[in-house]
Each structure stands twice: as C-alpha cells, then as structure tokens.
Predict the structure.
Amino acid sequence: MMGGETENLTMKAAVLRAFGSSLAIETVPDPVIGTGEVIVDVVASGVLAYAGEVFSGERKYLLDLPVVPGTGAIARVRQTGPDATQLAVGDWVYCDPTVRSRDNALSPDITLLGLSAGGAGGMRLQRYFRDGAWAERMRLPTENVTRLGALEAEAAPMWCALGPMLVPYGGFMVANLQAGETVLVSGATGSFGSKAVAVALAMGAACVVAPGRNQAVLADLVRRFGARVRPVVLEGDEEGDRARMQAAAGPIDCVLDILPPSAPASVVRAAVMAVRPYGRVVLMGGVGMLGGEDLALPYPWIMRNCISIHGKWMYPRDAPGRLVALVRSGLLRLEEYSVTTFGLDAANQAVAHAAAHGGPFRITVITP
C-alpha cells in the first residue's frame, strides 16, 4: 500500500503505562503514516537483558509514558511515503530504533524508540516518534529502515542479533578500526561485549584481548573464534590486571569499553590505560550512570601519550547497512546465537527471560 491507505484501524501492542507496572497487552490505534515515514509489519524484536530495569524505573531513563517498548525489529514494509525511492511493500528490513532530529545535522538530538531519550531535545523528538516494536505494526522515519534482501520468515528472530551488534560496531566505526589491528574489549564476557569480540574479528582485527572474571565464558570465546581471541582472567588488582592485558598480545591499538553501570571504575580504567601510546579509546559503557565512582583518567597520561578518547552513544546512520553486508558476506555469523521466542501476549515473560538469560550468544525475541 502507498500513501495514507490503511487496512486496519487497530492493532495489538504491549504498553508500559507506569514505571514499576507490568506491560499491558492492549488494542491500540494503528500508526498513521506521515511525510518521510514508513510503516512496517513487525515480525521479530529483541528484548534487552536490562529491559526490566528500564521499565521498573531503576535505570532512570528518559521515557515519556505511556509507551510501546521495543528497540529495533526485523519487519516487512507495509507502507512507504513519497520520499522512498527504493523501498517496496513486502521488503524485509531492519528497523533502527535510533531516531535523530533532522534540523541540525552537526548536533542532532537522539531518541531510542520505546526506550530512552538523550536529553531535553530527545524528549521533544520522543513525543512524536515514541512507540517501539512490541506491536503488530510500527511507524518510523524512512532513513531508519534498512533492506535485508531475501529472508526466510523462520530466520527473522535470529536476525534480531543485529540490534545489539550495532552498538559495538558503532564504537569501532568511530575508532576507525583497521584490519590487522589489536583490539581490547572491556566487558568481553557480557552480552554486548561478546558481540563486540565477534564484530571486531569480522572487521579484520588481528586479535582481540578479552578480559573478564568468568573463565567459562572466556574459554567459550576461544572455542568459537580460535587463537585470535586472547583471554585474560581479571584478578581485581588494577595495575596487575593492566599488565596482564598488555602482555596478552603486544601493543593494543584500540580499547572499547562496554561494561554496564554496575562495573567499578577501576576495572574500566585498567583496560583503558592498557592502550598503546597514540592509541584510541571508545567509551560506550555505563560507568557512573547510577551514581557510582566516575572514570578518573590521568590528564598527563592522556596528553603525553597522545591518546584519542571517543565517547559514542549508539552508531552512525550508515552502520546498519554496513553491518548487514558483513553478515551477508559470511564474516559475521548470526548462527552463533541461541534464540528464545515469545509471542506478544507473553511480553512480560519475555522480559523476565531476557533478564535471567542475558549472557553471551543468547537472545530473547518477541514475535508479534
């Protein structure tokens, strides 16, 4: 269908009406297309391991309620606007939840559909682009839809791994990671960190230093990816841990930190300061977000060693298409991931399952 035609007036959706409440499965109005927008039929949407912490209010994310949650989706195009020159009805697409304001290309405001806004400007944007993917249909900007090519319907849940993979991929893009470089992933044994290891290797990293305390997960990373992964067991001594990371693979060109808010600043600092002189650091984790100690890096060390430090929230707009190409090339394997699916009526069970099974190479998916 094109333009403003609609087939149904209502649809089923999961709705968060108040922080601390369960999701309500309701009948809500269909989204109505506007200029520069696309409406899709949602086939599968991933569930973040910490989604329950957002819905309870524990994470204190900026989120205007009521809202349909759900960040990112695999979907099929239902309607397009007049500015869509290549999308066609029925196309399989990845729906990027990172919505950017269009009136300031240099400093756009950002909101994440159904999850969080980045400041006051992001909240204004959220009041229009607010609802996420845990519904039968979703409306989003045309530029937030990336074609996937031919896809079997049963493979759609597996493709939801794209969403969390895009986060570290954005970090490596801003760091200008080059083939043959050595990368350290701070948080390698976590859900996002393990995906960062896979993405770095797919981008051509010579090896990835993978620090962590969970020896079983470290061993599994080596089993999956081979000798290009160099595990380092953390012992809690900042200087000692740093020395062990530096000894694992020679000079470290790039450090990506993607540890959660619960991680101590000392663990992040140990990893960050393992980078070589003239190296790059990308900060994508949560140190200090819940009121803990801030990351204190020595000014003289940064200045005298010519360290480049990048903060990065999410990823550039062209990242989804580039990551899809890595998957299609065979360099990045979605088959590594164990997928558990839930119907929309079981959205609350899906959130609980994701929290309890949020480890590496596992994804929880809602299939509306």
Observations:
- The chain has a mean pLDDT of 95.
